[in-house]
From TrEMBL:
This is Receptor L-domain domain-containing protein. Gene3D superfamilies: Receptor L-domain (3.80.20.20). Residues 31-123, 194-299 form the Receptor L-domain domain.
Amino acid sequence: MFSNHNPIFSEPECRFKGLITPQNISTFPTCSRVCAYLIFTKDTEVTEDQLTVALKNMKILIGGLMIFGVPFTHTKFLEPLEEIECDDVGISIVNNAELTDLGMINLKSIDCPGFRFSGNELLTGLSMPSLKNMSYNESVLIETLIVSALPKFCLNPNEARAFAGVRYPSFVQVLVPFCEPKYNEKLCKTPAEGCVELFGKVYIGPDFNMNLMKNIEAIHGNLIINGTSLTNFDDFENLQCIVSLEFTKTTLRIENNLNLVNPWFPKVQKIYSNGKEEIVFNKNAPELLLDPSLCYDYQLLSSEMKEDVPKFNGETCGKKMDWI
């Protein structure tokens, strides 16, 4: 399961094999980097307090993590974790009926092929406020599922950006809403100087001041560019992702921009939507229809590389040659 190229293999004292039990918990490594596949289930016999002591030094977990049907009310013993690096397994947090707090408040990075969260009846959030990104080996499909039947469950913007914004190839389903954000000088409801992230609908029309978009890195909502005189999207010089968790709205709609000849965002890596129409181009400069690669390039940015995304004047990539 573990890569022999990982430098931790030269430190056998930092490896742990098997399940954590009352008999072996005292032998859990005290290293800051630990190589282990941590599994917690209904049969786990150690307590939260025992695990808090045993795992207190672990900042980087190399291996994998499964939390399945645990009797715990919290997993705050994972609070020291800052990074999780996986080989051929991922992270699974499933069917934990008593769990009310994951407590992974210091987790910044996930480098794993999968993340599955479902059936956690009392959890109202992931409790991962520090999370910045999820990634993995470029040649491997990343699979992510986050679903909850609890109406109060929500994701904060950085969690949604990390999970929904993973690179292609990926299969991502984030089927929960955003939490109501706490706005500040960097997270804004409307474009303004100093904003780095925008929450909600961003409408760019003919008189919009494009200088306000130069520092924007993420849009948590949808972007509409309509009726402008833009010839390119160079002013979106720092935009990296557009993430919409709504089921009814188009994430990116670009229409009636008659001078637009280069509609490519310099740094965007992902456009995610739960809606049927994810990316729509309509009635822009006719030159856009002459470049077949543009449609396929945008398809690679979409949630699951869907065949009907994007749409140019109502047509998909598969039918594009018919209307050039």
